[in-house]
Design goal:
Layout: H1 5-28, H2 34-59, H3 75-99, H4 104-121, H5 127-147, H6 152-169, H7 173-187, H8 197-206, H9 252-268, H10 281-288, H11 290-310, H12 318-326
Length: about 325
């Protein structure tokens, strides 16, 4: 593709470390002191949560949004780590309840912790991490409670309570916002709505429009589209603090499909949400590495899930296995 030595190096620097970590964690999680590692990690996340509270006090508001900070970067990164702790703690409680070992008196502190982290999780107002949390919890509920104990009576009861729940929230602001978003997606011309740039990019990818300008099987090359490392050499697109001067680079695809979006953002001077950003992992892999990259990406998760499912854990540590599986 259009990639040169710099783009390939930056791409490897950005993506290889987490991929390697994801690969080795399932392989060695039996031998690792998983509980001790998580205990240290949770203490560190507590520190981040205190900093979020200080941000709320500083700005005199509960929902701070993007200005919220921790020691790991912006609001989204702090929210991500809180999301990890919430997933672990909820999965642990769910596992105990499935095993019949849940005792309220012994787990009252864990439930208080979950409530605390949910409240703090709202301070940075990270819609992306909220989406991740809701999707994972939905999978946990379906797999552990619906599929595991599936029968006709439970399905009818679940549908009944779901309908009742929808009826009671139908007049609330949350429901109205969801309804408004659905109506916007249905009626609005997505290609002309700056708030839905991510959806627009997915649409062009699925229709094959982007592949007209690149190799559909091998892609346009690493760091040539929407991966984080793609903007390292474009000071006109994003402000990047890097210790050395780098030669300028902007691919044809970026210039054609992404630059106009950023230009509209700068012209409007508005603050756009997650749906407005054209950057996603799937889009980056699909365009930069093509169909071959997508197959490798999906196979990565396939081998991880297979390894996790084959690994034996004692009953008292089964929640470790379930956490890694869902995460």
């Amino acid at each position: 593709g259009e990639a040169d030595a710099y783009t390939i190096v930056f791409w490897m620097f950005s993506y290889l470390p987490p991929f390697v970590l994801i690969m080795i964690l399932p392989a060695f999680m039996q031998d690792l002191e998983f509980g001790k590692i998580y205990g240290f990690y949770k203490k560190w996340v507590y520190l981040q949560s205190f900093l979020l509270i200080f941000s709320a006090i500083q700005y005199c508001t509960f929902i701070v949004g993007d200005p919220a900070r921790g020691t790991v970067g912006d609001a989204n990164w702090v929210a991500f780590h809180i999301c990890v702790v919430l997933i672990y703690e909820i999965v642990r409680i769910v596992t105990l309840s499935i095993q019949g070992n849940f005792v309220l008196r012994k787990n009252i502190l864990s439930l208080i912790e979950i409530i605390y982290f949910i409240v703090v999780f709202l301070i940075p107002e990270s819609t992306a991490n909220l989406g991740i949390l809701l999707i994972v919890l939905g999978l946990v509920f379906i797999k552990e409670y619906v599929i595991h104990f599936i029968n006709f009576t439970r399905i009818i009861l679940f549908l009944f309570f779901a309908v009742i729940g929808i009826y009671f929230i139908s007049g609330t602001k949350v429901y109205q916002r969801i309804e408004s978003a659905v109506n916007t997606l249905r009626k609005t011309d997505i290609d002309k709505n700056p708030y839905l740039s991510k959806v627009m990019t997915y649409k062009k990818l699925v229709k094959g429009e982007i592949y007209h300008d690149s190799n559909w099987f091998f892609g346009s090359g690493p760091s040539t589209f929407t991966s984080r490392s793609s903007v390292m050499r474009m000071p006109d697109e994003r402000v990047n603090k890097f210790p050395i001067k780098l030669p300028y680079f902007k691919s044809r695809l970026f210039k054609k499909y992404i630059s106009p979006i950023y230009a509209d953002w700068r012209a409007s001077r508005e603050s756009y949400g997650n749906f407005a950003s054209p950057q996603t992992t799937i889009i980056s892999v699909a365009v930069e590495l093509g169909i071959a990259g997508i197959l490798c990406f999906l196979s990565l998760f396939y081998f991880i899930i297979r390894r996790v499912k084959r690994t034996y854990f004692s009953p008292d540590k089964l929640h470790h296995k379930k956490f890694v599986f869902y995460f």
